[in-house]
Amino acid sequence: MPVPTILWENEELTIIDQTKLPLVLDSITLKTVEDVWDAIQKLRVRGAPAIGVAAALGVIVGIRNFQFDDRTALVEKVKQVADYLATSRPTAVNLFWALDRMKAVCDRYSSATAAELMAKLKREAVTILEEDKLICRAIGRSGSDLVPDDSTILTHCNAGGLATVDYGTALGVIYAAHEAGKNITVYADETRPLLQGSRLTAWELKESGIPVTLICDNTAAKVMHENKIDLVIVGADRIAANGDTANKIGTYMVAVLAKAHGIPFYVAAPSSTFDFSLSSGERIPIEERDPIEVVHGMGKQTAPDGINVYSPAFDVTPANLITAFITEKGNIFPPFTENIRSTIGTK
Ligand code: MRU
Asked: How many domains does the chain have?
């Protein structure tokens, strides 16, 4: 990445405004917790791990200007700010995981003064950011073993440096394979309606010097049929205990196609994306977004006035379509329920 997706410097939270890519690489400083909420909701910062990191730092943004005489008031404020940020988007579990980590600091340091607790909270948020960089590189190393030399990878949406602090999960695997000297080419689904594939993945890979070919989402079957794809790697927003995986709308379709063509389908994600409270993907909350993104997404109206629109932002790929999970703790193969539990543990 030319600049980090999320930067915490001099107590300021700065993010790349991803809504402006690929035309303008512009960063904005989020000064209030409302700015952070809005940036997450509007996808200025997006991608499950990046949302989690932004939210953790968003808690600091939300509490830093208050003078706390006693720790009770501070703890109450942390809870209030975290609960507010939790309403920004529903599907990526990393958001709730990061906010829970921030709230847990208050419980862990139950005898700390308000000033001491403030310092611990700042340290936790920065740790979440720093860990993301290391975790993505570990995912990259682990997944690189699964990528043969001279292979072509199809990916959907953006699970790259833009979806994390700076390296990516699915694209992290691609970067690691490339850095290991493997000859890798990528097909990027454009990813309607918000075009994360064409706006972000194609931009990011091009910046990195990795050959990338952009395709419309409905071209995926054809490139697979033409034997152009050796493997698929995608990211994830939430993975249930049995391996059912929520990711960007259209991922399920790609997984079905990969199965039909005998192509391995890998999901790359950090442990923070696994949700052991859900036994299957049935109960993963799926965000529905404003129809305007579908009917007016390309700078002009593309459907008749008043048309009915259904726009879920994510779908759930059943575990039986997934070849393996690539995590910072290693690659996980079936049977998923027991192997996910033994590899990821209880977080
Ligand atoms: O709506 P978005 O752009 O936040 O959706 C992002 C995705 O679906 C990514 O594939 C997922 O969050 C994994 S990012 C490492």
From this structure: 2
